[in-house]
Design goal:
11 strands; alpha/beta; Rossmann fold; five-stranded parallel beta sheet; six-stranded mixed beta sheet; 43% helix
Length: 377
Amino acid sequence: MAEARSVAVALLTAATFLTGCERGVSNGPAVSPTGPSGCPSAEARARAAVTRAEKTDVPWNGPTSGPPAVSGKTIVYVAQTMTNPGVAGVAKGMREAARVIGWNVRVIDGQGTPAGIQAALSAAVALKPSGIVIGGFDPGATSQQVSRATAAGIPLIGWHAVAAPGPSAKPALFTNITTHVDDVAAISAHWVVSHAHGNAGVVLFTDASIPFARHKSELIRKGLAACPGVRQLAYENIPIPDASSRTPREVSSLLSRFSSRWTYSVAINDLYFADAAPAFRAAGQKGSGPPFNIGAGDGDPSAFQRINSGQYQAATVPEPLSQQGWQILDEFNRAFAGRPASGYVAPVHISTAANSAGATAWDPSGYREAYRKIWGK
């Protein structure tokens, strides 16, 4: 019964904080300067999870068998926006893998707007390629184009296109490549709880226009709510295409409102901290924090540079972007051979200055060799 009451309290706290998320508006409950003290049990669980996720000597646990490479394929990667470092990182990985497997990859940039994404996907379908990648946007917003691709027999693979990894019936995707959003959200919240020893004032940055991102941020809020000592100060809804212009202004406002009560930040994408850095610097905040900032997704090179140099970001939960680019081509190869999707989902990882060894990406070992062997290359 005590556990049930604790869960109920956590859910009530999350529900209270979830009230209202209008575009560009900060929302949150009234903030206590002190708040409850800690959460020993939750902190212990968080610390154990973070320790596992920070390991770097993890062997390849993906596919080791599959159909040999077919030849002469052209894949079009429709990007939500190439200004999103995660989207761009996957495209880079696909191009690298394409040189190995012997295919052509073309990128069409949707420029981050609904009209631009629809036009980009229409152009992709008109090219009649072997396959199309839905790169970081909701296929529901391009249902007509998706239907045309399906009718033309063009297989579709998503990257962060829907919330869950694996095949999707509606929308019709051969598979969707992403880490488990639940795991990414949970480990981000765990990092805050563990690093803060159960006492923090947190601001969350998200793009609620992207269903995947909004779902992730809601899960993060629920994870943070499990620790009574973690106060959720504000929820900043800033669309990714607007981040460079709006984030500095919002950060300045948040610093004015919360001052030293703001000790941690979580963002659904690292790029928010690139845009926040000038405002932190102008306000005289130390690059090493507080606030201590963690990006719950992507892990682009600039994020690693900020982390390694102690400049307004302490950690990231990086996607293995290059590996996912290789996986996309392997999944297409399985589709062309009439095989099912591999079902592989990369495990979550946390990168910090202590474990990144100066790297500018999370690039786990073993996948290049494994895919070359599968493809016969």
